[in-house]
Write a structure and sequence with these properties.
about 600 residues; Dipeptide-binding Protein, domain 1; D-Maltodextrin-Binding Protein, domain 2; Dipeptide-binding Protein, domain 3; 6-stranded mixed beta sheet; 4-stranded mixed beta sheet; about 25% helix
C-alpha cells in the first residue's frame, strides 16, 4: 500500500478521497514526436500576471501568477490535481510522497531525479533554500498564518543530495501537513538564485536570517521588474515543462516555448503557447468569433452564442475549481468596523443575498451556492451535511426584523440609522453611536459584466432594508491590494475601505488544498483581508490541524457558515471554456485552475 494511504487515512470518507492518490495519470506520457504548432489561450480581463518569483506577496497572490505563469516554469514540490479532483498526484510531483514519523512530527522528503533547465539537478538544498527565504520574509507570504508554516518548523536538515528532514514543533495530522504545509513549497535553484545583486556572486547567503532577507529582497525587486522577465538570467533557470519566450508588461501578453530539459513524465507536444490578454469579455468573444483564439471562454451573459461557436469549431467545456466566493467586510475600519462586528448586521446582509436567483438569472445556472468555507463542488467528504443547507435563505423580512430588533430605524429604500445606541438587548451594539447609518462603500473587480450585474442586484436588495452601497470598480490587482486590514497609524489604505469583492472565485484552495481556514480566516493571516478575529474559530482551526478525522473540519465549517467572517456569494465555474476542436488533451481542467499545456496537442 502506498505510504500516503497507509498513514493518512483516518475515516472511510477520507479513504475514498485519498484513493485518488493511487490512480494513474489522466493522460499518456506523450508520443515522442517533436513539439509543433502554436496554441493561443485567452486570459480573463484585468488579471494579467505581475509576479514571476514563486514566493509572492499578498498583492500578487492570484490566479494569473499562480495558475497561468509560475507552475509552467517552476514546479511545486507536490502537485495536486488528479482527474479533476483536488487530491495529490504522485506522478506529477517532484518528490515522493513524504514519510512521516514520530506521530506526524517529522517529515522526510525524497526528491525524484529532476533537473533544472541548465542541467543542474534539483536538490534537497533547493527545497531548503525556499524554506529559508520564506522564513526570512514570511509576513509578505500570502499563505502565511502565524503559528503555522514556517513558524511550526523546528529544524530543516539536508540529509543527502535528494533527501530532506523537516522537524515540526509538535505532532500534527500528516494529512494536514501534506495538503496544507508541504504543498506550499517550490524548490528554487539555489545554485543560480542565492545572490544579493545582479552582478554579485552566488553564495550561501540564505543560511543566515540577514542573508536570506537580502536574497529575498533582491529576487523580489527582480520579479517586480516586469520589462526584464524574458531576458533576466534568473528566470531562465526553470524546472517546469516551459520556458518564458516573451512578455509584454504593458498588455500582459505572454509567450512560452518548451523546456527541452524538463524531467517530468509529460513533455510538451506544442511548440508555442501564447497567453493573450483582453480588456473585456466583449473583446475576448470577438476573438473567438474570429477564430483567433484556440482556448478561450464564453462570458456568462453571452451563452446564447454557444451554438454559433460550436458551428465555428469550438467545444464547450465548463471548468470547475476548488474554491468559494464571498464579499469581504472590513472589521478593522475605525469608522464602520464596529457595525460589521455585530453578527446580526452580517446576518441581515446575508439574508438579502438571493444566491439561487443570481445563479439562475445572472449566471445561467452554471454555478453553485456558497454557504460556508468549504466548496460544495467538486463533491468531497470535506463537505458537512449542515453546510449543504443555507442557514440564511433570502428573506427581506428577516433582514429588517434583525435590524429593528437591535435598535435600528429601518428606512425601506432609504438609509437606516441607529436609534438605540449602546450594548445589551435591543441596542445597536458596542462602538456604534446614535445616528450611525448603514451606508458603505464597495469596490469590486472591473471587466466582467456578470459581476457588475451581481453588484447591482446586491445594491437593490440591500436598499430594501435601508442599507446603501456606493459601488466602484477597479482592476483585480487594485481591489486585492486595497483590501487589507487597518493597522494604525501606518496602514491608511487598510483603514479606508468598507467592503471588497474580487469576483466569483474569490478564493481557491491552492496551495493549501485541505479547506481549513488558517490561511484565510485565521486571526492575523495574510489573506484575512477584513481582519476577522474570533476565538472559537481559532480553536476550531487548530483542531483541524492537530486532530484526526473529519469531525474537526466539519465543526469548523459549520461554525463559520453561521458566524459569517465574510458575506457568502454564489460561486461559478472558473470559466466556461470554449476550446477549438483541433486542440486535444485539455480535459480534465484542473480544480486548482492551473494550466497544464504540456498535455495539449494540435490535430484535425
Amino acid at each position: 500500500m502506498p505510504q500516503s494511504r497507509r498513514i493518512l487515512v483516518a475515516t472511510a470518507g477520507l479513504a475514498l478521497l485519498l484513493a485518488g492518490c493511487g490512480l494513474p495519470l489522466a493522460r499518456s506520457a506523450g508520443t515522442g514526436q517533436p513539439p509543433r504548432g502554436t496554441v493561443t489561450f485567452a486570459q480573463q480581463p484585468a488579471s494579467t500576471a505581475n509576479y514571476i518569483f514563486p514566493l509572492a506577496p499578498a498583492a500578487s497572490f492570484y490566479g494569473s501568477n499562480y495558475g497561468l505563469l509560475q507552475p509552467l516554469l517552476f514546479r511545486p514540490l507536490y502537485w495536486f490535481g488528479n482527474h479533476g479532483a483536488p487530491t495529490l498526484n504522485p506522478g506529477l510531483s517532484l518528490a515522493r510522497t513524504p514519510a512521516f514519523s514520530d506521530g506526524g512530527r517529522v517529515a522526510t522528503i525524497t526528491l525524484k531525479p529532476y533537473r533544472w533547465s541548465d542541467g543542474r539537478p534539483v536538490t534537497a538544498r533547493d527545497v531548503q533554500f525556499w524554506i529559508n527565504l520564506l522564513t526570512a520574509d514570511k509576513a509578505n507570504w500570502e499563505a502565511y498564518v502565524p503559528g503555522a508554516f514556517p513558524d511550526n518548523v523546528v529544524r530543516t536538515q539536508v540529509t543527502g543530495p535528494t533527501t530532506l528532514r523537516i522537524t515540526f514543533n509538535r505532532r500534527y495530522s500528516p494529512y494536514w501537513l501534506l495538503y496544507n504545509e508541504l504543498s506550499q513549497i517550490y524548490p528554487l535553484p539555489s545554485h543560480a538564485w542565492d545572490k544579493t545583486s545582479a552582478g554579485g556572486s552566488v553564495g550561501s547567503y540564505d543560511r543566515t536570517a540577514a542573508g536570506a532577507v537580502r536574497v529575498y529582497d533582491f529576487l523580489d525587486q527582480q520579479s517586480k521588474d516586469l520589462s526584464t522577465w524574458a531576458s533576466n538570467p534568473l528566470w531562465k533557470v526553470v524546472d517546469g515543462p516551459w520556458r518564458l519566450a516573451s512578455f509584454d508588461p504593458t498588455t500582459g501578453y505572454i509567450s512560452f516555448v518548451p523546456n527541452p530539459r524538463y524531467s517530468g513524465p509529460q513533455k510538451p507536444r506544442i511548440a508555442h503557447l501564447d497567453e493573450v490578454p483582453f480588456t473585456s469579455d466583449t473583446a475576448e468573444l470577438d476573438a473567438l468569433r474570429a477564430r483567433s483564439i484556440d482556448y478561450g471562454y464564453l462570458p456568462v451573459q453571452d451563452l446564447a452564442q454557444r451554438r454559433a461557436l460550436a458551428a465555428l469549431g469550438y467545444r464547450f467545456e465548463p471548468w470547475p475549481y476548488w474554491g468559494i466566493s464571498f464579499m469581504a467586510v472590513n472589521f478593522t475600519n475605525p469608522a464602520i468596523g464596529p457595525i460589521f462586528r455585530q453578527l446580526y448586521v452580517r446576518q441581515a446582509m446575508q439574508h438579502l443575498i438571493d444566491q439561487p436567483l443570481y445563479l439562475k438569472r445572472i449566471f445561467a445556472g452554471l454555478g453553485y451556492p456558497t454557504y460556508g468555507p468549504v466548496p460544495l463542488q467538486p463533491r468531497t467528504p470535506f463537505i458537512s451535511p449542515q453546510e449543504m443547507d443555507n442557514p440564511y435563505p433570502y428573506s427581506v423580512a428577516s433582514a429588517r426584523s434583525l435590524l429593528r430588533s437591535h435598535g435600528w430605524a429601518v428606512a425601506v429604500n432609504g438609509l437606516s440609522h441607529c436609534v438605540r445606541a449602546g450594548t445589551g438587548p435591543g441596542r445597536c451594539g458596542p462602538g456604534i453611536r446614535e445616528g450611525a447609518t448603514l451606508a458603505f462603500t464597495l469596490q469590486y473587480v472591473s471587466g466582467t459584466l456578470a459581476v457588475t450585474q451581481e453588484v447591482e442586484a446586491l445594491r437593490s436588495a440591500f436598499l430594501a432594508a435601508g442599507i446603501q452601497l456606493t459601488a466602484t470598480s477597479a482592476p483585480f490587482g487594485t481591489v486585492l491590494g486595497n483590501a487589507t486590514p487597518c493597522r494604525l497609524p501606518t496602514s491608511h489604505v487598510g483603514c479606508s475601505w468598507d467592503m471588497a469583492y474580487w469576483g466569483t472565485g474569490s478564493w481557491t484552495y491552492e496551495p493549501d488544498y485541505y479547506p481549513t481556514g488558517g490561511e484565510i480566516f485565521g486571526s492575523g493571516a495574510a489573506a484575512n483581508s477584513g481582519g476577522y478575529a474570533n476565538p472559537t474559530n481559532e480553536a476550531n482551526i487548530i483542531a483541524t490541524h492537530t486532530e484526526p478525522g473529519l469531525a474537526p473540519l466539519h465543526r469548523y465549517e459549520n461554525y463559520l457558515a453561521r458566524n459569517l467572517p465574510v458575506l457568502w456569494l454564489p460561486n461559478t465555474y472558473y470559466q466556461l471554456s470554449e476550446v477549438s476542436t483541433r486542440l486535444h488533451g485539455t480535459q480534465p481542467q484542473t480544480s486548482a485552475a492551473y494550466l497544464a499545456p504540456e498535455y495539449w496537442s494540435l490535430g484535425g
